[in-house]
Every structure is written in C-alpha cells, then in structure tokens.
Design goal:
With 678 residues, the protein is α/β, with parallel strands linked by helices. It is 26% helix and 16% strand. The strands form three sheets. Strands 1, 2, 3, 4, 5, 6, 7, 8, 9 and 10 form a ten-stranded antiparallel sheet that branches. Keywords: Heme, Hydrogen peroxide, Iron, Metal-binding, Oxidoreductase, Peroxidase.
C-alpha cells in the first residue's frame, strides 16, 4: 500500500491501540496490580463481590460474542481503494463516479451464504461480494454476490428459502450444504429458482479464490444525472486475474485440509503485496427502453446478456490492506443496499424493495441497537448531523439542548440541504395501481435463461453441471423430490436432465427441453482471462537436487509472478548438489496437492522409496484435478512410472525445449480439460 493514508485510514487511526509494553488497566483506565488471582477472603476463601476487576473482565468475556449473521455468517474482508477510469456524469451525479481525480476508500467483505461462522469455505455455495465505498457524500454500499441472479423474485419468500437451505431443524444437518431434501423440495416447488440453480450447480459456486471470482449487484438499480435523467443499471466486478474455480473433488478435500483456504489466500496475497484487483463494469439501459427485451429488466432471476447490453468498464478497485482486527471490522461491518448517495436510486425490483427494510432490521439485533453506524468500520468519512439521540452504543456527545426539528433555539439546525447543496432527492417515478398481492406476468418465464446458461457452457462445464446435480440430488432421500426436480429441469435441457436422472435412479424424461437456442459466451468461464500471476506452485525437492537448474527455473517463475513453496519429507532445509540450500515450507504431512495450483517435481539424488511414493501420490492427485504438472531430473522418472508423461498440461524437462517457459504457459491455463482421466 502507498504511504499516503486514505481518509478512512486516518479516521480509523484514533481507534487503533498498540498495548505493547503497556501496563494492564481496567476499562476505566485504572492500573491493576494482579491479573492472575481473584480477590478472596483468605487464600482458600470465597471470591469477594467487591472484586471489580474480576467482574469487569468476566462480564466483558461473557458478552464478547454477538449473534452471527443468519446468512453470510462465514466471511472475510479487506480494505482497498477505488479509482475511476472515466467520468459517468452523463449517467449519474454521484461524486465518486464522476470525479476521476479522486480515490475512494473501500471495504469489501466476501462470504459464503449457507454455513455458520465456523463452517468450511470451499463448499458449494453462493459467495457474498459486498463493497462499502466511503465517499465524501456518505457511505455507498454495493451489497452483492458472485452470481448475478437470485433464487426468488419477491423478498417475502426469503425466510422460506433460507429455512429450506439451512440445516434441517429436526437434526441440525447438513452444515453449509444444499445437498439435502428441504432445499431441493423448495426448488421443486418454487420454479422461479431454475436459473439460479444452474449457476449454483456450476463451477461458479466453488471459486478458486475470492481474488478470482466476479461480483454482481444482482438487482437493477437506477442512475440519475444532474439533469434528472434516469438510466437503469447493473453493476459488475471483473477480477483482473480472471474467473477461475476448483473442481468438486478438490473442493471437498480442501475443506478437510484447510477450512480457512479462501481467507488465507486473500490475507496472504495482500501481505505479500499481490493486491487483488477488480474492474468495475456497468450495464446501462435508458429508461425508455425498459420494455424492449424478452425478459423483465426488474426481474432478479434474470441477467442482461452482455452480448445484448455490453458491460462498460469504468474503474478499478484494489484491495491493499488487511484488517487490524477481524471482530471490530469484518464482523461489525454493517452493509445495507439502502445506503446510497445522490445519483444512485432504486427500482421496483420486489426483492430489492424487501432488502431495503430487512438489512437495517438485521443490524439492530446483531449490533445491539440503532447506533451501529458509529462503530469505526461503519462511520462515514464525511461528518454526520441529525437529531437522533441516545440508544445502545451511543458514542457521539451532543452538547446542544436542541434535539428536534423544527426549532428556533438553534436557528432551526441541523436542517435539510437542498438538492443544489447535496441533499438526496429520490427520483420522481410516477407510481399508480391497485394494492394487490400479485406477480407481474413478465416475471413468469422461469426456464428461458436457465436454458441460455446451459447453452453457453463449454463441454467440461456441462459435464460439471451434470455431476453437480447428480451429487446433490443423490443426497436427497425423498424419491418424490428427485422426480419433481427431474420434471422441472426437463424444461431447461433434456441433455442435462436425462444425464443426471439416470445417475439418481429416476426415469429420464423423454419429452421437454427448451426451444431457446441462443447462447452468451460471457457466461462461460472458458472465456475468462488467464495469467500465471500469483499462482501457487508446490516444488517437491529432496537432498541432492540440481541446484543450478532449479534456481534458474525458479527465477523465471518469479519473473512471471508465480509463488513457490518447497515440499519435502522433513522440515528444515534441503541441500543441492552445488551445496545450495532451500528452506522447506511444508512436508508431505503438513500440506497437500489440493492446496496448490500446480506441482513442479524435481526430487534429488538422495531420495528414498518412501519419498518417491509420497511424491507420486501428490502428482497423481494434481493430475486427476486437471492441474499443470512439471518435472525435471528425478521427477521425470516419476512421470513415466505413473504414466503421466505426454498428457495435456504435463511438462517434462526431458522433452521441453524451454521447460520454464512451457511450464509457465501450462500454469496460466489453470486447468487442462482435454486430459484423459482414467
């Protein structure tokens, strides 16, 4: 991070406390002389109630946990900054989207949705991608996910969705998983979920890292410019490293090997200076074109195909600082889609409308009252003034006798600001109609975009979808629910449904399918960016390795941004044939091939049979997960013995004219799907 502190960093500075070398005190500042023993009536006597230090310490401990989020409980966050590439003044008057000279501080929290705070991070699930912009006009929260659509169209059904998704109430299982009866029973009986389920069963639901997943605002919002002209907008975050995923077997194993895999990846990348970057994109539709599409632009279960409404890249966010304290920042941050600034407004998306109520209501119970905005992580960088007073957690000290509007004792201040003075003015949309509990006819096509998604997938992505449906529904005990799902998705694709129906013991449908032939290449991860930068390679070394050759390769890897960790059979160092030494980062016992993007096998002249056996296990597993595998010297023999040589993405120093260069290309490719796995 640069030495120039952002306004948010300067604001937080007053709350940072370094207690190194300090005396212990009570919360009132009183120095204490003993922190090991409570105050007693005699050495073996009862503890005295007057022990105020014990009572304060224990009371604080008893109240250290706050209710975890009902959804998005498992999260991790980082600070960053946003830079605008070009002014959007033709669309909006929001200052941070029109002034290219400004850098806006941000705070981003990534999360899983279904699991509890202690669940694993590589489960199949939607990922939250929520961003708080600390603008000079107030905080703006873009509260989104890594999937651009949602399960339901109306917020009144959100409690039902979450109840069905969460562990089943009669036995509290399964944790952080959608592979169970109540979830799929909900899907079968709420068919608006068809499109979202396609995304959730795709590779998008098992991302490689937070750094390599897209983010979406999900809803249709409104941009309003200085002249009052309105445009509909969808927001996108595009990772500079591209959008990449795990494979399912790998994701399950990572859960057992490292439940903190995603947060560790984000934390370490920032600590190493490999700052995650995301470009902000917008899709814009003029208000007068609202009804020109074959879908309703306000329907949260629909995308705007990028081929029809291109994404315009307008800025970039860089995450460049880890949090100082996970509880104070990551857990206490309060996002709300209703936190907007002038120039950004809402639409009549019924899911969005419900969220505008729900988020404030949630923070009241989680954070103990109405003053959660005064917590350091939530405070805007601009001053705030109003007549709100008191309540749990109040930090502001208001000396004025006046706390009401209108008044004369304080010159009728604070008072509203005009639009010219920066006051927020809601877009004056004309609204009329009867009070009804109903759904627009334009929201009732549930299968066309699910079919569009299927049509857009590459062959290996389609295979992954079939396997995901087969796994998830294979965990469903109710045959009736399985049959309902087969019938439901026969409206999306017969190819898909016939394949997974066969796998779950349900008679495959013979009729159905979709007449949608259109595809959208932007939906497939096969069309994403590929780069070796920040990829993590495991280097398998034993004593007696070729020091000169290995070092030359490592130097080339480093020049391409690849991070390397040395794996051997013992901690300490390994020694090369030129007396060079390398520190061992992990042993075969303390790491696993699933924790790396690729493996580079070298070995050494002093390896034994046990070493070779362990190395072969690592190589075979990486190969099975379609990862790049490289080998030189003794490692070449391992490739031959395990019949891995000659396969796609397997680079042998015996055959490569430029081993380092070819291996880097293989690493950049991420996976080698044309590999034949026996």
């Amino acid at each position: 991070m640069s030495n120039d502190k952002s306004k948010k960093d300067e604001q937080l500075e007053q709350y940072r406390v370094d207690d190194t070398g300090k005396h212990t005190t009570t919360n009132q500042g009183l120095k204490v002389s003993e922190d090991e023993f409570s105050l007693k009536a005699g050495e073996r006597g009862p503890t005295l109630m007057e022990d105020f230090h014990f009572r304060e310490k224990m009371t604080h401990f008893d109240h250290e946990r706050i209710p975890e989020r009902i959804v998005h409980a498992r999260g991790f966050a980082a600070h960053g900054e946003f830079e605008l590439y070009k002014s959007l003044e033709k669309y909006t008057k929001a200052d941070f989207l029109t002034d290219t000279s400004k850098k806006t501080s941000t705070f981003v929290r990534f999360s899983t949705v279904a699991g509890s705070k202690g669940s694993s991070e590589t489960v199949r699930d939607v990922r939250g991608f929520s961003t708080k912009f600390y603008t000079e006009e107030g905080n703006y929260d873009l509260v989104g996910n890594n999937i651009p659509v949602f399960f339901i169209q109306d917020a009144i059904k959100f409690p039902d969705l979450v109840h069905a998704l969460k562990p089943e109430p009669h036995n509290g299982m399964p944790q952080a998983a959608s592979a169970h009866d109540t979830f799929w029973d909900f899907i079968a009986n709420n068919q608006e979920s068809a499109h979202m389920v396609m995304w959730a069963m795709s590779d998008r639901a098992i991302p490689r890292s937070f750094r390599m997943m897209e983010g979406f605002g999900v809803h249709t919002f409104r941009l309003v410019n200085a002249e009052g002209k309105s445009h509909f907008v969808k927001f996108h975050w595009k990772p500079v490293l591209g959008t990449h995923s795990l494979v399912w077997d790998e994701a399950q194993k990572v859960s057992g090997k490292d439940a903190d895999f995603h947060r560790g990846d984000l934390y370490n990348s920032i600590e190493d200076g490999d700052y995650p970057e995301y470009e902000l994109g917008i899709q814009v539709i003029p208000e007068e074109e609202e009804f020109k599409f074959d879908f309703d632009v306000l329907d949260p279960t629909k995308v705007w195909p990028e081929e029809d409404v291109p994404v315009e890249i307008v800025g970039k966010m860089t995450l460049n600082r880890n949090v100082d304290n996970v509880f104070a920042e990551t857990e206490q941050v309060a996002f709300h889609p209703g936190h907007v600034v002038p120039g950004i407004d809402f639409t009549n998306d019924p899911l969005l409308q419900g969220r505008l109520f729900s988020y404030t209501d949630t923070q009241l119970i989680r954070l103990g009252g109405p003053n959660f905005h005064e917590l350091p992580i939530n405070r805007p960088v601009c001053p705030f003034f109003n007549n709100q007073r008191d309540g749990y957690g109040r930090q502001t000290i208001n000396p004025s006798q006046v706390s009401y509007h209108k008044n004369s004792l304080a010159g009728n201040t604070p008072q509203p600001a005009s639009e010219e003075e920066g006051g927020y003015k809601h877009y004056q949309e004309k609204v009329e109609g009867h009070k009804v509990r109903a759904r627009s006819e334009s929201f009732k096509d549930h299968f066309s975009q699910a079919a569009l998604f299927w049509n857009s997938m590459s062959d290996h992505e389609k295979d992954h979808l079939i396997q995901a449906f087969s796994f998830e529904l294979g965990k469903v005990e109710s045959v009736a629910v399985r049959e309902q799902i087969v019938e439901m998705f026969s409206n999306v694709s017969l190819e898909l449904t016939q394949a997974f129906a066969e796998n779950i013991g349900v008679t495959p449908p013979q009729n159905g399918g979709s007449d949608v032939t259109k595809s959208s290449p932007a939906l497939s991860q096969a069309n994403t960016k590929h780069s070796p930068n920040t990829r993590k390679v495991g280097l398998i070394l034993a004593d007696g390795y070729n020091g000169k050759d290995v070092q030359e390769n490592l130097d080339h890897f480093a020049s391409q941004g690849i991070a390397v960790e040395v794996i051997s059979d013992k901690q300490g160092t390994v020694q090369g044939d030129d007396n060079s030494e390398m520190p061992v980062d992990h042993t075969f016992l303390t790491t696993d091939s699933v924790l790396y993007d690729a493996l580079y096998a070298v070995g050494g002249k002093e390896q034994d049979k046990a070493f070779k056996k362990k190395a072969s296990y690592f190589l075979n597993e990486a190969f099975t997960h379609f990862k790049p595998v490289g080998a030189t010297h003794e490692g070449v023999h391992w490739l031959k013995e395990n019949e891995l040589s000659g396969n796609s993405g397997v680079v042998s120093g015996e055959n490569a004219d430029d081993f380092a260069g070819e291996f880097v290309e293989a690493v950049a490719a991420h996976r080698h799907w044309d590999r034949k796995i026996m």
